[in-house]
Model the fold of this input.
Amino acid sequence: MNSYKITTLNDFVTLRQKDFPYAKGELSSLLHHIGTAAKIVNKKINKAGLVDIIGRSGEVNIQGENQQKLDVFADKVFINALLASGECCGVATEENQNEIVFTDKFARKGKYVVCMDPLDGSSNIDYNVSVGSIFSIYRRITPRGEKVTNEDFIQEGSKQVAAGYVIYGSSTMLVYTTGNGVNGFTLDPSIGEFCLSHPCMRTPDDGRIYSINEGNYIYFPSGIKKYIKYCQEKDEDTGRPYTSRYIGSLVSDFHRNLLMGGVFLYPQNENAPEGKLRLVYECNPIALIAEQSGGAASNGQERILNIIPGSLHQRSPFYAGSKNMIKKIEEFIA
Ligand code: AHG
Ligand code: MN
Ligand code: MN
Done:
């Protein structure tokens, strides 16, 4: 390898622009701006404990969850970056009840809308555990120049033109897809650039890790209880018992399993009859990354990307990871 040659995120998205004959660089600009916002959020997270950024903001979001100060910070940073890109006409995020419609005359002409979980796993932030940001990009349905409406944001996941996540872990990485494979970039703090470190990411068809909050066991549907027992049984052919790993940060749990092979499960339970994770800005983007790396994502019955969302904050049971493991889970649920 030529150690003098680095490919930055910006170089890479510009190079890949030719994969989109209909686009004129707009998507590249949007991805550049997401990368910049991620660096700003990363800086702040790195200083948690030193500056007044840990703990609750005192507000409760639309989900009825306590907002952390960093939830609010990340939400503002990403929204401002998307507005500044000039290519985005509106944003929907976990932290806002309704979609935010950009009304200035440039943004109104933007081709894309973005759905985001600005800070995922935020309850972990006070304890120095990895967190993430998740994004999903759609082409707008309403004509350019008009104000975007709710229907622009609740499109079927298969309509995503790009999706990805940032993981603020032992290193900071940005992983994204434009429907043509998955690529990962690691932030080099010395030059402040995301550099291509994980080209063409592929997830193994089979894995040995299962990731689920087993504390909810008694509330799970019987198929999931049986699947957990299956994971714990001894079987040399399939390498069972499997290993259990659960951080409680979707991005981190999913990212580890993507690299190593495994499955992430968040089923419905008696306390959360629709599951916990949000279809539009958590499940869909992660599902696209899963599929584009050779894995799969399901709600237990059907492909996540085929579900037509009824509303912005709709929840869904969520299973994502190695494709043979997802198939097995669907069999147990059936
Ligand atoms: P968020 O911080 O955006 O609200 O998301 C938290 C999510 C997700 O990251 C994680 O997989 C899940 O909540 C963990 O839930 P439990 O604590 O119920 O296991
Ligand atoms: Mn989340
Ligand atoms: Mn969040």
The radius of gyration is 19 Å. Residues 65, 94, 117, 120-123, 213, 248-250, 276 surround AHG (ligand 1) (CB under 6 Å).
